[in-house]
Amino acid sequence: MEYVSRHEWGALDSGKGLSEFRRVPVGVVVHHTTGSAKDPWARVRQHDKFHVQTRGWNSIAYNWLVSGETGEIFEGRGWNRGAGTKNHNHNTISISYIGSGDDLTETGKEAFLYVIGEMRNTYGDHLWVKCHRDLGTTYCPGDDLAAWIKAGMPVQEDQPTSETWQFRLDEMESVGLEFRRKALKKGARGLNVSTLQKRLNQRINAQLDVDGIFGNATKSAVKEFQSMYPIKVDGVVGPVTWRYLWTV
User: Fold this and answer.
1) Are 208 and 111 in the same domain?
2) Contact status, residue 83 vs residue 51, Cβ threshold 8 Å
3) How far is residue 66's CA from residue 80's CA, in Å, rounded to a whole number?
Protein backbone atom coordinates (compact mmCIF):
# COMPACT_ATOMS: atom_id res chain seq x y z
CA MET A 1 0.00 0.00 0.00
CA GLU A 2 1.26 3.49 -0.84
CA TYR A 3 0.88 6.20 1.81
CA VAL A 4 0.17 9.75 0.64
CA SER A 5 0.75 12.50 3.20
CA ARG A 6 -1.28 15.72 3.50
CA HIS A 7 1.68 17.63 2.09
CA GLU A 8 1.98 15.33 -0.92
CA TRP A 9 -1.66 15.56 -2.00
CA GLY A 10 -1.85 19.28 -1.25
CA ALA A 11 -4.11 19.69 1.78
CA LEU A 12 -5.38 23.24 2.24
CA ASP A 13 -4.16 25.22 5.23
CA SER A 14 -7.22 26.66 6.93
CA GLY A 15 -5.06 28.36 9.55
CA LYS A 16 -7.16 26.79 12.31
CA GLY A 17 -5.09 23.78 13.24
CA LEU A 18 -6.33 20.30 14.19
CA SER A 19 -7.47 19.02 17.59
CA GLU A 20 -5.88 15.99 19.21
CA PHE A 21 -7.92 13.18 20.79
CA ARG A 22 -8.34 13.79 24.52
CA ARG A 23 -8.99 10.12 25.17
CA VAL A 24 -8.33 6.86 23.37
CA PRO A 25 -10.86 6.31 20.52
CA VAL A 26 -13.37 3.48 20.93
CA GLY A 27 -14.10 2.67 17.30
CA VAL A 28 -13.72 3.23 13.57
CA VAL A 29 -16.49 4.69 11.39
CA VAL A 30 -16.51 3.89 7.67
CA HIS A 31 -17.65 6.49 5.10
CA HIS A 32 -17.53 6.95 1.36
CA THR A 33 -17.07 10.04 -0.80
CA THR A 34 -18.77 10.91 -4.05
CA GLY A 35 -18.00 13.69 -6.49
CA SER A 36 -17.37 14.61 -10.10
CA ALA A 37 -13.60 14.08 -10.10
CA LYS A 38 -12.43 10.68 -11.37
CA ASP A 39 -8.79 10.63 -10.24
CA PRO A 40 -8.49 9.72 -6.52
CA TRP A 41 -6.04 12.57 -5.87
CA ALA A 42 -8.44 15.05 -7.45
CA ARG A 43 -11.35 13.64 -5.44
CA VAL A 44 -9.48 14.07 -2.18
CA ARG A 45 -8.60 17.67 -3.06
CA GLN A 46 -12.21 18.29 -4.14
CA HIS A 47 -13.56 17.17 -0.77
CA ASP A 48 -10.88 19.08 1.11
CA LYS A 49 -11.87 22.26 -0.73
CA PHE A 50 -15.58 21.64 -0.01
CA HIS A 51 -15.02 20.95 3.68
CA VAL A 52 -12.59 23.85 4.23
CA GLN A 53 -13.85 26.59 1.91
CA THR A 54 -17.59 25.82 1.77
CA ARG A 55 -18.29 24.33 5.20
CA GLY A 56 -15.62 26.30 7.02
CA TRP A 57 -14.08 23.27 8.72
CA ASN A 58 -10.46 23.05 9.82
CA SER A 59 -9.61 20.43 7.19
CA ILE A 60 -11.02 17.53 5.20
CA ALA A 61 -13.36 15.68 7.57
CA TYR A 62 -11.88 12.18 7.44
CA ASN A 63 -8.84 10.81 9.24
CA TRP A 64 -7.86 8.57 6.33
CA LEU A 65 -9.12 7.97 2.79
CA VAL A 66 -8.46 4.87 0.67
CA SER A 67 -8.62 4.35 -3.08
CA GLY A 68 -10.24 1.23 -4.48
CA GLU A 69 -8.57 1.92 -7.82
CA THR A 70 -4.95 2.28 -6.75
CA GLY A 71 -4.87 1.08 -3.13
CA GLU A 72 -3.34 4.42 -2.10
CA ILE A 73 -3.96 5.56 1.47
CA PHE A 74 -4.37 9.31 1.87
CA GLU A 75 -3.75 11.07 5.16
CA GLY A 76 -6.71 13.29 6.04
CA ARG A 77 -6.65 14.48 9.63
CA GLY A 78 -4.42 11.55 10.47
CA TRP A 79 -4.02 10.97 14.19
CA ASN A 80 -6.10 14.02 15.11
CA ARG A 81 -9.84 14.27 15.71
CA GLY A 82 -11.97 13.96 12.59
CA ALA A 83 -15.21 15.73 11.66
CA GLY A 84 -17.09 13.21 9.53
CA THR A 85 -19.44 11.61 12.10
CA LYS A 86 -21.73 13.97 13.98
CA ASN A 87 -21.72 13.41 17.78
CA HIS A 88 -18.98 10.78 17.51
CA ASN A 89 -15.91 12.70 16.36
CA HIS A 90 -14.48 12.98 19.88
CA ASN A 91 -14.01 9.21 20.28
CA THR A 92 -13.93 7.60 16.82
CA ILE A 93 -11.62 7.50 13.80
CA SER A 94 -13.11 7.93 10.32
CA ILE A 95 -11.98 6.14 7.18
CA SER A 96 -13.51 7.04 3.84
CA TYR A 97 -13.63 5.06 0.61
CA ILE A 98 -12.84 7.38 -2.30
CA GLY A 99 -15.88 7.07 -4.54
CA SER A 100 -19.11 5.15 -4.05
CA GLY A 101 -19.13 2.26 -1.60
CA ASP A 102 -21.27 0.43 -4.14
CA ASP A 103 -18.15 0.18 -6.32
CA LEU A 104 -16.07 -1.63 -3.70
CA THR A 105 -12.99 -3.46 -5.03
CA GLU A 106 -10.68 -6.09 -3.58
CA THR A 107 -7.90 -3.49 -3.68
CA GLY A 108 -10.04 -1.15 -1.63
CA LYS A 109 -10.77 -3.90 0.90
CA GLU A 110 -7.08 -4.58 1.37
CA ALA A 111 -6.39 -0.88 1.92
CA PHE A 112 -9.20 -0.67 4.49
CA LEU A 113 -7.86 -3.67 6.39
CA TYR A 114 -4.36 -2.20 6.40
CA VAL A 115 -5.56 1.12 7.85
CA ILE A 116 -7.79 -0.55 10.45
CA GLY A 117 -4.86 -2.77 11.43
CA GLU A 118 -2.70 0.30 11.97
CA MET A 119 -5.47 1.92 14.04
CA ARG A 120 -5.65 -1.12 16.29
CA ASN A 121 -1.87 -1.28 16.58
CA THR A 122 -1.92 2.33 17.74
CA TYR A 123 -5.03 2.51 19.92
CA GLY A 124 -5.75 -1.13 20.82
CA ASP A 125 -7.66 -4.21 19.67
CA HIS A 126 -10.81 -2.95 21.39
CA LEU A 127 -11.68 -0.73 18.40
CA TRP A 128 -15.00 -1.69 16.81
CA VAL A 129 -15.78 -0.97 13.15
CA LYS A 130 -19.18 0.44 12.13
CA CYS A 131 -20.73 2.19 9.14
CA HIS A 132 -21.72 5.86 9.09
CA ARG A 133 -25.32 4.72 8.55
CA ASP A 134 -25.19 2.88 11.90
CA LEU A 135 -24.72 6.20 13.68
CA GLY A 136 -26.90 8.53 11.63
CA THR A 137 -29.60 8.80 8.99
CA THR A 138 -27.58 8.41 5.80
CA TYR A 139 -26.92 6.03 2.91
CA CYS A 140 -23.18 6.31 3.55
CA PRO A 141 -21.07 4.23 2.92
CA GLY A 142 -23.18 2.48 0.23
CA ASP A 143 -24.77 -0.95 0.36
CA ASP A 144 -21.78 -2.99 -0.90
CA LEU A 145 -19.29 -1.47 1.52
CA ALA A 146 -21.80 -1.65 4.39
CA ALA A 147 -22.50 -5.33 3.69
CA TRP A 148 -18.77 -6.09 3.67
CA ILE A 149 -18.29 -4.34 7.01
CA LYS A 150 -21.27 -6.21 8.52
CA ALA A 151 -19.85 -9.52 7.28
CA GLY A 152 -16.61 -8.93 9.17
CA MET A 153 -14.55 -7.57 6.27
CA PRO A 154 -13.69 -10.88 4.56
CA VAL A 155 -11.20 -10.96 1.68
CA GLN A 156 -10.77 -13.41 -1.17
CA GLU A 157 -8.43 -16.21 -0.20
CA ASP A 158 -6.87 -19.05 -2.13
CA GLN A 159 -8.07 -22.52 -1.19
CA PRO A 160 -5.85 -23.51 1.76
CA THR A 161 -3.52 -26.48 1.46
CA SER A 162 -3.55 -29.15 4.15
CA GLU A 163 -0.38 -27.60 5.59
CA THR A 164 -1.80 -24.08 5.83
CA TRP A 165 -5.08 -25.39 7.26
CA GLN A 166 -3.20 -27.36 9.93
CA PHE A 167 -1.23 -24.23 10.79
CA ARG A 168 -4.53 -22.35 11.13
CA LEU A 169 -5.93 -25.05 13.43
CA ASP A 170 -2.81 -24.99 15.57
CA GLU A 171 -3.00 -21.21 15.74
CA MET A 172 -6.65 -21.31 16.84
CA GLU A 173 -5.96 -23.98 19.45
CA SER A 174 -3.26 -21.79 20.99
CA VAL A 175 -5.76 -18.91 21.13
CA GLY A 176 -8.25 -21.18 22.88
CA LEU A 177 -5.75 -21.95 25.63
CA GLU A 178 -5.97 -18.30 26.68
CA PHE A 179 -9.61 -18.89 27.65
CA ARG A 180 -8.61 -21.15 30.54
CA ARG A 181 -7.77 -17.99 32.43
CA LYS A 182 -10.49 -15.73 31.07
CA ALA A 183 -13.30 -17.18 28.96
CA LEU A 184 -15.08 -15.25 26.20
CA LYS A 185 -18.52 -14.28 27.41
CA LYS A 186 -21.16 -11.57 27.23
CA GLY A 187 -19.58 -8.16 27.56
CA ALA A 188 -16.26 -9.16 25.97
CA ARG A 189 -14.90 -7.09 23.08
CA GLY A 190 -12.07 -7.30 20.58
CA LEU A 191 -10.54 -9.37 17.80
CA ASN A 192 -11.18 -12.74 19.47
CA VAL A 193 -14.89 -11.92 19.62
CA SER A 194 -14.85 -10.95 15.93
CA THR A 195 -13.15 -14.26 15.09
CA LEU A 196 -15.76 -16.11 17.16
CA GLN A 197 -18.61 -14.35 15.35
CA LYS A 198 -17.13 -15.14 11.93
CA ARG A 199 -16.71 -18.79 12.88
CA LEU A 200 -20.27 -19.08 14.20
CA ASN A 201 -21.52 -17.58 10.93
CA GLN A 202 -19.54 -20.25 9.07
CA ARG A 203 -20.52 -23.19 11.27
CA ILE A 204 -24.22 -22.57 11.99
CA ASN A 205 -25.11 -19.63 9.72
CA ALA A 206 -25.68 -17.50 12.81
CA GLN A 207 -25.93 -14.30 10.71
CA LEU A 208 -24.17 -12.27 13.36
CA ASP A 209 -22.87 -8.78 12.79
CA VAL A 210 -19.10 -9.17 13.09
CA ASP A 211 -18.57 -6.17 15.32
CA GLY A 212 -16.28 -7.60 18.00
CA ILE A 213 -18.92 -7.10 20.70
CA PHE A 214 -20.17 -10.17 22.63
CA GLY A 215 -23.85 -9.36 23.11
CA ASN A 216 -27.08 -11.32 23.46
CA ALA A 217 -27.12 -12.47 19.82
CA THR A 218 -23.59 -13.86 20.07
CA LYS A 219 -24.40 -15.59 23.35
CA SER A 220 -27.50 -17.21 21.81
CA ALA A 221 -25.46 -18.40 18.82
CA VAL A 222 -22.83 -19.90 21.13
CA LYS A 223 -25.52 -21.77 23.06
CA GLU A 224 -27.03 -23.05 19.79
CA PHE A 225 -23.64 -24.36 18.72
CA GLN A 226 -22.93 -25.90 22.14
CA SER A 227 -26.28 -27.73 22.09
CA MET A 228 -25.11 -29.68 19.04
CA TYR A 229 -22.20 -31.29 20.92
CA PRO A 230 -21.42 -32.73 24.37
CA ILE A 231 -20.50 -29.28 25.68
CA LYS A 232 -21.96 -27.37 28.61
CA VAL A 233 -24.66 -25.09 27.14
CA ASP A 234 -23.95 -21.83 28.94
CA GLY A 235 -23.15 -19.33 26.17
CA VAL A 236 -19.58 -19.00 27.45
CA VAL A 237 -16.61 -19.83 25.21
CA GLY A 238 -13.84 -21.62 27.03
CA PRO A 239 -11.09 -23.84 25.57
CA VAL A 240 -13.47 -26.77 24.94
CA THR A 241 -16.12 -24.82 23.02
CA TRP A 242 -13.39 -23.00 21.08
CA ARG A 243 -11.73 -26.30 20.12
CA TYR A 244 -15.04 -27.75 18.90
CA LEU A 245 -15.62 -24.65 16.77
CA TRP A 246 -12.43 -25.34 14.85
CA THR A 247 -11.83 -29.10 14.94
CA VAL A 248 -15.17 -30.95 15.07
Assistant:
1) no
2) yes
3) 17
User: Rounded to an integer, what distance in angstroms lies between the CA atom of residue 241 and that of residue 218?
Assistant: 14
Give the separation between CA 248 and CA 101, rounded to whole angstroms.
37
Which domain-ending residue is among 150, 171, 200? 150
Give pLDDT tens digits along the chain (248 positions). Answer: 689 999 999 999 999 999 999 999 999 999 999 877 778 999 999 999 999 999 999 999 999 999 999 999 999 999 999 999 999 999 999 999 999 999 999 899 989 998 998 998 899 888 899 999 999 999 999 999 999 998 888 766 544 555 554 545 555 666 666 777 788 899 988 878 888 898 898 888 888 888 888 999 999 999 999 998 888 899 999 888 888 887 76
The reported pTM is: 0.67
Sheet holding 3-4, edge to edge: 3-4, 73-75, 64-67, 92-98, 27-33, 128-131
- Yes or no: say if 233 and 222 are a contact pair by the CB < 8 Å rule: no
List Cβ neighbours of 59 (8 Å cut-off, separation of 6 or more): 11, 12, 14, 18, 48, 51, 52, 76, 77, 83
Is the domain of 24 the same as that of 62?
yes
What CATH number is associated with residue 10?
A: 3.40.80.10
Residue type at 48 in one-letter notation: D
Per-residue CA distances from 195 to 155, 173, 184 (Å): 14, 13, 11
19 with 96, same domain: the answer is: yes
> Any residues with CB less than 8 A from the CB of 20 and at least 6 apart, and which?
79, 80, 81
| Residue 157 included in any domain | no
Contact residues for 1 (Cβ-Cβ < 8 A; gap 6+): 71, 72, 73, 110, 111, 114
Q: Residue 112's domain spans which residues?
A: 3-150
